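Why do we care about 3D structure at all? Because function follows from shape, and shape follows, mostly, from sequence. That is the central idea of this module. The next example makes it concrete: a single protein chain, its amino acid sequence, and then its structure expressed as tokens.
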Amino acid sequence: MVEMKNVSKKLSSRLVLNNINYKFEYGRAYGLCGPNGSGKTMLLRAISGLIIPDDGEVIIDGKVLHKDISFPENAGIVIENMMLLPQYNAFDNLKLLAKLKKKADENDIHNVLERVGLKSDLKVRKFSLGMKQRLNIAQAIFEKQNIILFDEPTNALDDEGVNLVYKIVKEEKERGALVIIATHHEEDLQEMCDIILNVSEGRLYEK
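And the structure:
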């Protein structure tokens, strides 16, 4: 379980998270819906450990983020401005990542690339935006992460890619993962999510 207790965060005197209280449970997909600047991405950043709340706590499986652990121990993240290694192809990018935690082997990499529909041996520098997004999604799930955070996962994808994302979210939550998706495309959330939450001016409201 991921629990947010009284979480608030200011950036440049602006309250981007405003006293968030919520419990996210495994085996479910949650959607964060709201316009740009509403706080969706900041909420994902708080859960992933990329920002530190000014007030409150993020508790992951009983461990307080930035106190007991620095980052979630088993999370996959697709978030804006992610860096891929342009000199390598998709397989080699994931193979290098796999060396960090040693949780995935070459079969896992081949399987995930098939799941996201990425079979090209091109170097990442020659990828289209849609291909880069497919690889970002692959790196977030290839180690069977139990927390998956997707920020605008269908961006730059064609209809086939969007349907693949819908299928992947369903498969991951059925596997028992907690999936949280932030997007301003509410139709995407209706296809993928068990619970849709509205985010407005840093506050969270269950729809």
